[in-house]
UniProtKB/TrEMBL annotation:
Family according to the record: Belongs to the helicase family. RecG subfamily.
Domain Helicase C-terminal: 478-624
Catalytic activity: ATP + H2O = ADP + phosphate + H(+); Couples ATP hydrolysis with the unwinding of duplex DNA by translocating in the 3'-5' direction
Record-linked CDD domains: DEXHc_RecG, RecG_wedge_OBF
Protein purpose: Plays a critical role in recombination and DNA repair. Helps process Holliday junction intermediates to mature products by catalyzing branch migration. Has replication fork regression activity, unwinds stalled or blocked replication forks to make a HJ that can be resolved. Has a DNA unwinding activity characteristic of a DNA helicase with 3'-5' polarity.
Molecular function (Gene Ontology), one example: DNA binding
Name recorded for this polypeptide: ATP-dependent DNA helicase RecG
Matches recorded under PANTHER family: ATP-DEPENDENT DNA HELICASE HOMOLOG RECG, CHLOROPLASTIC (PTHR47964:SF1)
Listed SMART domains: DEXDc (SM00487), HELICc (SM00490)
Tree of life domain: Bacteria
Amino acid sequence: MPDTAVARLPPAVGWPASGTPLASRLAKLDLHRLDDLILHLPLRYEDETRLTPIAVARPGFPAQVEGEVLSCEVTLRPRRQLVARIADASGALVARWLNFYPSQQKQMATGRRVRLFGEVRGGFLGLEMVHPRVRPVEEAESLPDALTPVYPTTAGLGQAALRKLVERALNLVPLEEGLPANTLAELGLPGFAEAVRALHRPAPDADPAALENRDHPAWQRIKFEELLVQQLSLRRAYNARRAHVAVALAARRQLTQALLEGLPFGLTAAQARAQREIARDLAASHPMQRLLQGDVGSGKTIVAALAMLQAAENGWQAAMMAPTEILAEQHYRKLAGWLTPLGVEVAWLSGSRRKREREVVLARLQSGECLLAVGTHALIEDPVAMPRLALAVVDEQHRFGVRQRLALRDKGADGRRPHMLMMSATPIPRTLAMTHYADLDVSVLDELPPGRTPIRTRLVSDARRDEVIGRVREACLEGRQAYWVCPLIEESEALQLQTAVETYETLCAALPELRVGLIHGRLKTDEKAATMAAFAAGELQVLVATTVIEVGVDVPNASLMVIEHAERFGLAQLHQLRGRVGRGTAESVCILIFAQPLSETGRARLKVIYEHTDGFEIAREDLRIRGPGEFVGARQSGVPLLRYASLETDGDLIEPARALAERLLREDPAAVDRLMARWLGSREGLLRA
């Protein structure tokens, strides 16, 4: 983009008119106002403060050279290109452009003095630069007195134009200090204005490594403020939720106590603790917003059942929503088995139920005769009315989008918000919970119920597939059952993976003495239900499946899990799938079949799942490999990703940021408003979902 685009900015406002090409390019970078440019910080820096004599320029490193153009011509072999030869007192180099404009050819006219910046490399004719940046100069023209920032940009918006925009913003926007002086002193941080200027206009003597690695004091200041603003946003959202009214559900303990007395097992200490925390929240007149997280098999369902009963014993309704029909139906069967003997009806609602059955269920829910419901996203569809809904439970909450979670929340009774209990079997590392989940109360199930057998994990190359089939035969002939999980349903030319259908046919042929079943997402609901029921009843010995069995499936007799092309799965999925076995008393094994060659990421994931069984440790490693945005599904959850702070390297800043956020919210709301306006503008609403 020509630099003249910047000159078209209205001088009074300093921002391009809406709808102009410049405004749309800036919008692609999420830049909508001058304040956004202040925090649009460089990716890296180039050192144009010094000149390198051509003779001492090192191949493989960027350098700035200055010299006279000896020649410039368009050559046609081996392809059409612009080739210029530039010399200074120490030597000469070749500059080459494979794509060029006539204006560049004029710029490199013979006899002109130019400065070139680019990476030097060894060429056929000696040192050369390919596509260097060029600037015509006069003899003895002064050099810049600061490192040159290189900004994130988009097509049509050049670095020179972006630098001018940032310069204008720095001159027009008041760089107000937003943090208390004692906090800056305690943490050894510079002021905001000093930090911003140091990053946009670093001094020539600034440590380039500290700037590149983002551990320069100016970067520390920016990252601390970003973490602070995230804490402020989430805590303000948390406080706003507490200002809403919910139905107070007293812990009457009639039904909950009856359920506990009728169970064939006792609660673990962690389950009892979580149940007390939830019961206390439900008794309050503002909506609960709690995350119940625990490893695979830690017993979240019974804790959720006790919470739902607390609503029922007060005469109010509760609903549990799960992301897949298999998981929702499993929850329904479990809850119905526990609660029907207590005289409590549980409704089952899914998109696949027959129209007449569905209408009966809807009528009972609408009349309030039925107090508890379990279902898929069908629960949030318009015809479903639960006029006395006081508690909504969302299992595997990260699989639902913002709108789906809000739709369930908005079904509360008489304009009152229902209490919300989110459940996740993907343990969340502490640093992530403190940042991305600061608007929730968190209950953790950090122990497994007694009787769960440890699962041994084995890594096997796909060249040894026949040995694995033999292992399946042995386990099943000893009276056990096995899962065989595949990543795809049918053959894909792009991904030549073993598929569920093909594997099913292979196992049927290789294991004629065993009964093999197949389940995947494209089967009709009643077919899936029948296959799962047959496997649970022991009528099928091997179940070939896609990841539809990832969560919730509970068959204690299944002691062997085989995962095909394990390198294609994420760590959370592998851990979830492995947790489908080890639910009985028999020793359980999970075999991960992988294909060679392994990518670096694939190798790292398999190493983690092989070495660890603790879901929290696996989650920490997963966070390290994937990064926070992908780990929590931030784009779906509505929580903005951190742009500059890293949970891996800046964990020591989170606790002070959280403490200061609480203090500012309590003592200086005006400072909070200023900080939020600087960083979020109108985007704070994202955090309220």
